[in-house]
Amino acid sequence: MNEENIRTQMRKGILEFCVLLLLSRERAYPSDILNRLKEARLIVVEGTLYALLNRLRKEGYLTYEWEESRMGPPRKYYMMTPSGMALLEVMRSEWMQIAQSIACFLPDTPAHILPPADSTPEPAASAISIEKE
Hints:
Layout: H1 3-25, H2 30-39, H3 46-58, E1 62-67, E2 75-80, H4 82-103
Antiparallel strand pairs: 1-2
Helix pairs in contact: 1-4, 2-3
Protein backbone atom coordinates (compact mmCIF):
# COMPACT_ATOMS: atom_id res chain seq x y z
CA MET A 1 0.00 0.00 0.00
CA ASN A 2 1.48 3.36 -0.96
CA GLU A 3 1.49 6.52 1.14
CA GLU A 4 -1.25 8.26 -0.86
CA ASN A 5 -3.55 5.24 -0.57
CA ILE A 6 -2.99 5.05 3.20
CA ARG A 7 -3.71 8.78 3.55
CA THR A 8 -6.89 8.49 1.47
CA GLN A 9 -8.25 5.51 3.39
CA MET A 10 -7.61 7.08 6.80
CA ARG A 11 -9.21 10.38 5.73
CA LYS A 12 -12.30 8.65 4.34
CA GLY A 13 -12.87 7.13 7.74
CA ILE A 14 -13.01 10.50 9.48
CA LEU A 15 -14.66 12.66 6.81
CA GLU A 16 -18.20 12.26 8.16
CA PHE A 17 -17.00 13.11 11.67
CA CYS A 18 -15.19 16.23 10.45
CA VAL A 19 -18.18 17.45 8.42
CA LEU A 20 -20.47 17.00 11.42
CA LEU A 21 -17.99 18.85 13.64
CA LEU A 22 -17.94 21.76 11.21
CA LEU A 23 -21.74 21.88 10.93
CA SER A 24 -22.17 21.67 14.71
CA ARG A 25 -20.64 25.14 14.95
CA GLU A 26 -22.67 26.84 12.23
CA ARG A 27 -24.64 26.19 9.10
CA ALA A 28 -22.52 26.08 5.99
CA TYR A 29 -22.59 26.17 2.21
CA PRO A 30 -20.87 23.13 0.64
CA SER A 31 -18.04 25.18 -0.87
CA ASP A 32 -17.34 26.64 2.59
CA ILE A 33 -17.13 23.09 3.98
CA LEU A 34 -14.74 22.11 1.18
CA ASN A 35 -12.55 25.14 1.90
CA ARG A 36 -12.41 24.34 5.62
CA LEU A 37 -11.49 20.72 4.89
CA LYS A 38 -8.77 21.87 2.49
CA GLU A 39 -7.41 24.28 5.12
CA ALA A 40 -7.13 21.28 7.45
CA ARG A 41 -5.37 19.36 4.65
CA LEU A 42 -8.30 16.94 4.36
CA ILE A 43 -8.63 17.32 0.61
CA VAL A 44 -11.98 16.05 -0.61
CA VAL A 45 -13.45 16.11 -4.09
CA GLU A 46 -16.72 17.99 -4.47
CA GLY A 47 -18.70 14.91 -5.53
CA THR A 48 -17.68 13.04 -2.38
CA LEU A 49 -18.86 15.87 -0.16
CA TYR A 50 -22.20 16.27 -1.94
CA ALA A 51 -22.86 12.53 -1.71
CA LEU A 52 -22.05 12.60 2.03
CA LEU A 53 -24.25 15.64 2.68
CA ASN A 54 -27.13 14.08 0.75
CA ARG A 55 -26.84 10.78 2.64
CA LEU A 56 -26.70 12.52 6.04
CA ARG A 57 -29.76 14.59 5.07
CA LYS A 58 -31.71 11.50 3.97
CA GLU A 59 -30.81 9.79 7.26
CA GLY A 60 -32.19 12.77 9.21
CA TYR A 61 -28.89 14.06 10.59
CA LEU A 62 -28.80 17.23 8.49
CA THR A 63 -31.29 19.63 7.04
CA TYR A 64 -30.84 22.60 4.76
CA GLU A 65 -32.31 25.96 3.91
CA TRP A 66 -32.11 28.05 0.78
CA GLU A 67 -30.77 31.57 0.93
CA GLU A 68 -30.82 34.15 -1.83
CA SER A 69 -27.40 35.06 -3.16
CA ARG A 70 -26.30 38.54 -4.21
CA MET A 71 -24.49 36.94 -7.12
CA GLY A 72 -26.10 34.01 -8.86
CA PRO A 73 -28.72 31.47 -7.87
CA PRO A 74 -29.90 30.79 -4.29
CA ARG A 75 -27.52 28.81 -2.08
CA LYS A 76 -28.29 25.70 -0.06
CA TYR A 77 -26.94 25.92 3.50
CA TYR A 78 -26.69 22.72 5.55
CA MET A 79 -27.21 22.52 9.30
CA MET A 80 -27.42 19.87 12.00
CA THR A 81 -30.65 18.37 13.31
CA PRO A 82 -31.05 17.18 16.91
CA SER A 83 -30.43 13.63 15.63
CA GLY A 84 -27.26 14.84 13.96
CA MET A 85 -26.07 16.38 17.23
CA ALA A 86 -26.75 13.07 19.01
CA LEU A 87 -24.81 11.19 16.32
CA LEU A 88 -21.93 13.64 16.67
CA GLU A 89 -21.76 13.07 20.43
CA VAL A 90 -21.49 9.31 19.89
CA MET A 91 -18.79 9.87 17.25
CA ARG A 92 -16.94 12.28 19.53
CA SER A 93 -16.96 9.76 22.37
CA GLU A 94 -15.74 6.98 20.08
CA TRP A 95 -13.04 9.25 18.64
CA MET A 96 -11.74 10.08 22.11
CA GLN A 97 -11.59 6.39 23.02
CA ILE A 98 -9.85 5.47 19.76
CA ALA A 99 -7.36 8.34 20.05
CA GLN A 100 -6.58 7.34 23.62
CA SER A 101 -6.09 3.71 22.58
CA ILE A 102 -3.78 4.63 19.71
CA ALA A 103 -1.82 6.95 21.98
CA CYS A 104 -0.84 3.91 24.04
CA PHE A 105 1.21 2.69 21.09
CA LEU A 106 2.85 5.99 20.16
CA PRO A 107 6.19 6.86 21.72
CA ASP A 108 6.40 9.99 23.84
CA THR A 109 2.64 10.30 24.40
CA PRO A 110 1.97 12.77 27.23
CA ALA A 111 0.80 10.96 30.35
CA HIS A 112 -2.44 12.99 30.58
CA ILE A 113 -3.61 11.42 27.30
CA LEU A 114 -3.00 7.82 28.32
CA PRO A 115 -5.70 5.90 30.21
CA PRO A 116 -4.90 4.89 33.80
CA ALA A 117 -3.11 1.55 33.94
CA ASP A 118 -5.90 -0.07 35.95
CA SER A 119 -8.79 1.26 33.83
CA THR A 120 -11.29 -1.05 32.20
CA PRO A 121 -12.44 -0.07 28.73
CA GLU A 122 -16.04 1.09 28.45
CA PRO A 123 -18.48 -0.83 26.27
CA ALA A 124 -18.47 0.17 22.63
CA ALA A 125 -20.76 3.07 21.79
CA SER A 126 -21.97 1.12 18.78
CA ALA A 127 -24.44 -0.51 21.15
CA ILE A 128 -26.08 2.89 21.60
CA SER A 129 -29.00 3.51 19.29
CA ILE A 130 -29.59 6.92 17.81
CA GLU A 131 -33.10 7.80 16.89
CA LYS A 132 -33.70 9.90 13.81
CA GLU A 133 -36.14 12.77 13.74
